[in-house]
Every structure is written in C-alpha cells, then in structure tokens.
Amino acid sequence: MRGSSRRGASNPRGRGTKTQRVQTEPLNPGKRARVIFPASEYQDRQVPQGAPIQAPREPESLESENERLRKVVKSMDGKIKRREKTIITEREQFMKLMKGQEAQIKVRDEQLKAEKEQNAQLKRSLDNQSKELADLVIKLPMLEIEMRELKKAQQQGTGQEAAPVVVQEAIAQQINAQEAPVQEGQDSPRVIWKLTTSEEALAIWNDMFGGPEYF
C-alpha cells in the first residue's frame, strides 16, 4: 500500500487524525518564557484615556555633562585652596612659636652663663677667704706666744732689748712645727710668718684685739 509506512496501517488513505507530539523541552532554553495575562488583567493595566504619556528620559548631552564636571572640579579646587591656606597659617604660627622659644632659650643660656660666671667668682672669693682664715688660724697662736713673752719681759724689767730674742725663739719653734712634712690625706696650709721686733707684734695685736689687756 502506498503511504502505509508513513501514515500507518490503520489508515491506508493517509487521512484522519494526526498524532500530537508532547512538548517536553522549551524550544529556546536560553530565552525567558513569555507571560500572557488574562484579558481582564490586561484591561486593568491599560493607560486610562486622557492621561499624559511620559516621554522616555533622553540621555544627557555632552555639554551638560561637561558643565556638571566643571562644577565638581571647581568645588574640589575651592576645598583644596582652603586647606592649603589653613596649612600655611598653621605653619606660620608654628614658626612664630619656635622663634619665640628659641629667643627664650637664648636668653636663658645667657642667664645661665652669667650665673656660672658669678658662681666661679664667688668660689674664688671663698677660696681666698679660706686661705686668709687659715693664715689667721696659724698666726694667732704665734701672736699669743709673742704677747706672753713680751709681757713677761716687761714685768721682769728687762726692757725692750731682750723681748725680740725670746719672741724670735718662739717663732722659730712654731715655724719648725709648720715645716714638718704633711701626712697623706691632710690638707693643712703652711704659712711662714715672722716678726722681727716686739713693736710690730704689739701693733698687730692692738689692731686685732685692742691691746694687751686681753691677757
């Protein structure tokens, strides 16, 4: 039979109902399926009659975009200039502060230098006074010995001639004691002091103590 292989044996003429194929997969898997709303919902979504139709937004022109960028750049330039001005002001204030501190430090250095010089002068003066006091401490016993011998000589009636000899012997003993070697660790000044006549001793004694009535 003709067409029996394509139409099937049950329909030899090739006429009758066709076999409906079942769609198991979408025709286009990469595309999104279209959603068809019912007629009622579609009518609700329609734009009412007389409502203005909003035109789609056109992209900004190149000039407007450039103008917007100019405003942004100008604003940023103003911020940068204000910041630079603030930094310069702060730097100037800091430099003034540093100069003031440097001047104060310089004045303080001068004061310390003057105080150091005064302290050095005071130390030299104290050293000189200490030496003079040490000299007086050494001379005082010699004056006492000399005045005692002079007073004894006057009481014995020997007169002024014998007094210098006795005084010179006492002074020689005192000088010999001073010239003894100084032991280690001692710091005693050695002053050689000598009187030649009893008149000089008496004059020094009167200057220091007001006369021989001290005894």
Can you put this structure into words, describing what you see?
The chain has a domain at 71-179 and 189-214. The chain has helices at residues 4-7, 39-44, 62-156, 163-178, 198-209. Helix 3 packs across helix 5. The chain is mainly alpha-helical and 215 residues long. 62% of the residues lie in helices and 0% in strands. Keywords: Coiled coil.
Shape: rod-shaped
Largest sheet: none
Low-confidence segments:
159-163, 187-196
Average pLDDT, rounded to a whole number, is 68
Class computed from helices, strands and strand pairing: mainly alpha
Element-by-element helix/strand order? HHHHH
Approximately how much beta-strand content do the residues carry?
Answer: under 5%
Number of helices: 5
Radius of gyration: 66 Å
End-to-end span in angstroms? 183 Å
Beta strand count: 0
**Multimer state:** single chain
Helix content: 55-70%
Region (Disordered): 1-67
Protein name: DUF2130 domain-containing protein
Biased composition (Basic and acidic residues): 57-67
Biased composition (Polar residues): 17-26
Please name the defining characteristics of this protein.
215 residues, mainly alpha, 5 helices
Give a quick summary of the entry.
Residues 112-153 form a coiled coil. The protein has 215 residues and is mainly α.
Topology:
Blueprint: H1 4-7, H2 39-44, H3 62-156, H4 163-178, H5 198-209
Helix pairs in contact: 3-4, 3-5
